[in-house]
Design the sequence.
């Protein structure tokens, strides 16, 4: 049962810098996705590298899944709204994320894994977010945790907002995962019609909002369904005020930028091209986690 908390008050809210359309694409073995945060936005939304939204009631759009593939240098956060995803990796780990659950994987120095969908009544919907690691952590030991829906902290506000705290701390509620380096905040919010949600954010954090049900108004700007709103970096702002003209559901993501060089080649994200070449050599030679 969600606890009720005292609402935060934002005195000066961030505005919407711009709206971003996702790019329909395929990944893995032909899974259809909407790539919302692309490589061109990595510097602007540092420390976040990618956001994929996926959702279909057609098994052919996703059932082939993501056969074994490598990662190094960052973290993946897979949030399943509906459906299940089975994970296996080169370290011998295996887990199943079910409806409403999250898998948090730290690739670190290297892991090869597979992610294979399992249907719930033919439906599959969720998000995968890539979070960069600081240079000091890129070669850390791989780690992952499956977080069932019932283990994700949640709260309600007096205005009726229902908030799930996947990562970070807000309104005095600590999320399922904390990260000191990037300080990510990852919320899933359900907001009733004509209700408002005030969220305090550190001034230096990059942040975005993505409504996947309904639409929102942020600082008088309309944010349509399935569009990402990048929030302006205003040093005078203490957060963001979000209003739902009709019942809506959305994710809010924010984090402390690393301000480090980003070198990416597919599933490898390091700081230099030399490190990318080393990652490729290590993978070919079987030197990833095993």
Sequence:
């Amino acid at each position: 049962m969600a606890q009720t908390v005292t609402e935060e008050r934002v005195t000066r809210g961030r505005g919407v810098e711009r709206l971003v359309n996702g790019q329909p694409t395929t990944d893995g073995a032909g899974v259809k996705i909407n790539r919302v945060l692309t490589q061109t936005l990595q510097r602007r939304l540092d420390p976040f590298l990618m956001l994929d939204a996926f959702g279909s009631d057609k098994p052919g759009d996703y059932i082939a899944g993501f056969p074994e593939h490598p990662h190094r240098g960052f973290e993946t956060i897979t949030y399943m709204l509906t459906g299940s995803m089975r994970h296996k990796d080169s370290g011998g780990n295996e887990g199943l994320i079910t409806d409403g659950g999250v898998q948090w994987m730290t690739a670190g120095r290297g892991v090869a894994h597979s992610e294979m969908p399992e249907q719930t009544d033919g439906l599959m919907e969720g998000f995968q977010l890539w979070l960069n690691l600081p240079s000091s952590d890129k070669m850390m030991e791989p780690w992952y945790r499956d977080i069932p829906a019932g283990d994700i902290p949640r709260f309600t506000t007096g205005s009726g907002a229902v908030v799930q705290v996947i990562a970070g701390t807000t309104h005095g509620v600590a999320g399922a995962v904390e990260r000191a380096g990037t300080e990510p905040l990852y919320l899933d919010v359900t907001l009733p019609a004509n209700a408002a949600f005030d969220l305090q954010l550190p001034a230096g954090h990059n942040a975005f909002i993505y409504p996947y049900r309904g639409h929102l108004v942020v600082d008088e700007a309309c944010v349509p369904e399935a569009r990402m709103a990048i929030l302006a970096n205003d040093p005078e702002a203490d957060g963001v005020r979000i209003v739902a003209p009709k019942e809506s559901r959305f994710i809010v993501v924010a984090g402390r930028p690393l301000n480090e060089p980003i070198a990416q080649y597919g599933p490898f994200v390091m700081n230099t091209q030399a490190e990318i070449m080393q990652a490729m050599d290590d993978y070919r030679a079987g030197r990833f986690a095993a």
The chain has one domain: 16-284. The domain at 16-284 is CATH 2.60.120.10 (Jelly Rolls). The mean pLDDT is 92.
